[in-house]
Structures are given as structure tokens and as C-alpha cells.
Amino acid sequence: MSNHRAEFRRLELRDLNAIEQIERASYPTPWSRSMFAGELAKPSSLSLGAFDPESGELLGYLIISRYVDAWHVMNVAVAPGHRRRKIASMLLDHLFELTAGEGRRGYTLEVRVSNDVAIRLYERAGFKPRGIRRGYYTDNREDALIMWRDPEPARAPT
Q1: Domain assignment present for 124
Q2: Containing structural domain, residue 115
Q3: What's the per-residue H, E or C state across 79-99?
Q4: What is the pLDDT at residue 158?
């Protein structure tokens, strides 16, 4: 696969097997299949996948929920064989484009305080640390860093 190419579309139920494989390889306490199915069905959620344009393989995904004042990034994961290729960054960029100017919402997320790679990714995407949620992760009571990004300015029509 060429290094920086992916196609983006909303995730569908037929993607669940591929989602599950990436999720299990990515997290100590993975989401269940029914949690993903629930998010895919929710009108207030946006579930985006990055796919290999040649093979159609799912490379990574991002699940985000719309709240009154913010988009809450719920889950971001990239297949182990495709990490360090900017796929997560491209997913975030695509998300910001899709949601720019929509209700002036910011973006928020929680990330493990030990997850330097993810924290750096989010900082590059414009997120800033805003606080700590103590004992947020159930598997080891690790703290979560709360990060926030201000709303995207609405794009002027070109």
C-alpha cells in the first residue's frame, strides 16, 4: 500500500468484523461488538473508517458522539500493521472537515496519561490538556488526561 493514501467513508454493520479485529489488537479492554453496532446506529454519532483504496481493507476508525457543546471522541484505533502512517491524523483531519462550523462545537476526549504516542497525535491535531479524570480506566485504574480542541471555524464558501 502506498504510504499516505486512504479512502474515508462512514462505517457500516458489514465492517464490524474488521472493526472488532483492530479493536482487540489495540486495547486491553476492547469495546464489544454490540457497543460498536450501537454507535453505528446512533444519529448523534459519527463513525468514520479509513480504507485501503486498492484492497478495501479497513485501516483504522474513529467514533465520535455529538453532545450539546462538544464532539466527544470515543474511540480511535489503527490496525497494528498500518500504524505510524498518519492514518489517525488523516481521520481526525477528515472529521474536522466534516464537522467544521457545525453548531460551533469543540472537541474533547480522554486518553491514558501513559499513552505518549496518542497524546502527541492529539496535540498535533490541536488538542490541549484540560485536566485529569482519576482512575478512569477500569482495567488498571489509570488516570485519563482530558483534552480539548476549540471549534473549527466555519469554512468560507470557495
Answers
A1: yes
A2: 7-149
A3: CHHHCCCCHHHHHHHHHHHHH
A4: 65
Distances in Å between the alpha carbon of 107 and those of 67, 79, 92, 124? 10, 24, 11, 14
How far apart are alpha carbons 28 and 154 in whole angstroms? Answer: 37
Does residue 110 have an active-site annotation?
yes
**Which one from 23, 39, 107, 122 is the annotated catalytic residue?**
122
Cell, residue 147: 483534552
Choose the catalytic residue: 110, 123, 137, 142.
Answer: 110
* Residue closest to 91 by CA, chosen among 137, 49, 144: 49
Percentage of the chain beyond pLDDT 70 is 92
Q: pLDDT, tens digit, for every residue of 54-88? A: 999 999 999 999 998 899 999 999 999 999 899 99
Whether 136 is a known active-site residue: answer: no
- Domain presence at residue 2: no
Domain containing 19 — which CATH number?
3.40.630.30
In a domain, 107, yes or no: yes
